[in-house]
Amino acid sequence: MTIFRNVKRLPTAEELIRKIPLSQEGYARIQRDREEVQDILAGRDPRMLVVVGPCSAWPDTAFLEYARRMRAFQDEVSNALKIVVRTYIQKPRTSRGWTGPVNQPDPFSPPNIEEGMLYSRRMMVAAVELGLAIADEALFTHNAKGFLELLSWVAIGARSSEDQEHRIWASAIGAPVGMKNPTSGCVPIGVNSVLAAQSAHTAVFDGYQVETGGNPYAHLVLRGGAKGPNHHLSQLYLARERMRELGIENPALLVDASHDNSRMNGTKTPEVQTDVIREVFGNLSGHPELQPLVRGFLLESFLQGGCQSLSRVTAETVDREGLSITDPCLGWERTIVLLRGMAQRVEELVPGLRRRKIS
């Protein structure tokens, strides 16, 4: 006996792409952005990667205002930082809750996946056409086409990185993919996920037996865990040693300054992201052998600082001006101060970088 019912037919990915096309210039830009991210992860580009933006891309009006501001700002730090904007349309839940605009574009109305697909692709295409590189977390891999080709960086989240289907999917895509450590915070398991994503697999896709090629730009993301943060010096060395033991190609990691790395007294506190980044840069300055390993950061940031709970607002009272409805974020002004400081620290770590021209 089935425990689901068909609601309605959804548009195919091809129909979605035809309805909301991306320009050829946009596709060319995505290819360049992916190559730049790959070069950073492989150490061919001395800059750092920064994946920054709201916890969830809602509402689209506020997200696109954030995108316009970031487009105007990013050239200021482009000598030292490669900015990729979080355009997260899928939200994993520990138990239950809103799963993002691709499923429910209006959090106060019933889920409507067709409208969510249109909402999400329209928003993502607009961000790329502005001249931004964008990122998303791969939660629903079966619904990736129509969105994946727009991304310059992809995350496999802490709840998914031990899942074999997500690992195999990561091994088959053309975008650089960050494998987060599991919610336990275990660094060796996180590195195991990287090895799985870098490896070739045989699997079933769309009714075919396929062989994946492995993703050489799969890398580790340290996001903390149930026992606390894991961005400290000892964990950086642990990650490096585990990567060496497993023969990881292009060994690299990003530090997620948010999530369980940003908890203060058990509560996620967005301002702690600044402390995390300060500590990591201090350790890189004192331990230059780690500089080739740590290739960037993840930050949660929106127009306003903090967040609002969906359980405490209504469609009439919710703040739609860039205040997160999921995890708390840094506000815009503090984000810009932080990014400028990060660019300065990268320039201090890499002599001559300040004078380098980025096309």
Q: Quick one: how many beta strands? A: 12
CATH superfamily: Aldolase class I
User: What do the pLDDT scores average to?
Assistant: 95
General shape: globular
Structural class: alpha/beta
User: Which residues form runs of ≥5 with pLDDT under 50?
Assistant: none
| Total number of helices | 9
Number of domains: 1
Span between N and C termini? 59 Å
Instruction: Name the CATH class.
Output: Alpha Beta
What can be said about the biggest beta sheet? 8 strands, parallel, barrel
Radius of gyration: 19 Å
How is the CATH topology named? TIM Barrel
| Strands ordered across the widest β-sheet | 1-2-3-4-5-8-9-12
State the share of residues found in helices, binned by percent: 25-40%
Oligomer: single chain
Proportion of residues in extended strands? 5-15%
List the topology elements.
Layout: H1 13-19, H2 24-42, E1 48-53, H3 60-74, E2 81-86, H4 113-130, E3 133-137, E4 153-156, H5 164-170, E5 177-180, H6 187-198, E6 202-205, E7 208-211, E8 219-222, H7 233-246, E9 253-256, E10 263-264, E11 267-268, H8 272-286, E12 294-300, H9 332-349
Parallel strand pairs: 1-2, 1-12, 2-3, 3-4, 4-5, 5-8, 8-9, 9-12
Antiparallel strand pairs: 6-7, 10-11
